[in-house]
Write a structure and sequence with these properties.
Structural class: mainly alpha
InterPro entries: His_Pase_superF_clade-1
Helix content: 40-55%
Pfam families: His_Phos_1
Number of helices: 5
Number of strands: 0
Strand content: under 5%
Oligomer: single chain
Radius of gyration: 13 Å
Largest sheet: none
Distance between the termini: 25 Å
Length: about 100
């Protein structure tokens, strides 16, 4: 993982061979959550995933939680490349323990 993490810190748009970039993961997660939020509006939603995608999304949530249409905003920002690498590269600060539950 060390090589992939080093690339993540330098360029959030660069994808490892056969993988997704940090920005790609943020965009994909936002799309899924946007449709889930519309379908289950007002309900508690449990998201289960690998640590990296959850950490990436938490970094974006932290930055954009003041937005009124958060998930749409995340989609727009990640697609346009407007989420700075300084935000996306911070996902390592949100490390999760195996099986950890976290409210966001």
């Amino acid at each position: 993982y060390a090589e992939v993490w080093a690339v993540d810190e330098v360029d959030h748009l660069m994808a490892p061979d056969g993988g997704e970039s940090v920005a790609d993961v943020a965009t994909r997660f936002a799309k899924v959550l946007s449709s889930t939020e519309m379908e289950f509006h007002g309900s508690a939603i449990l998201i289960v995933s690998h640590g990296d995608p959850l950490q990436i999304f938490q970094a974006v949530l932290k930055e954009t939680k003041e937005k009124t249409s958060l998930l749409d905003e995340v989609c727009v920002l990640t697609k346009s490349g407007m989420i700075a690498s300084s935000i996306l590269s911070q996902h390592r600060k949100f490390a999760l323990l195996t099986g950890e539950l976290r409210r966001v």
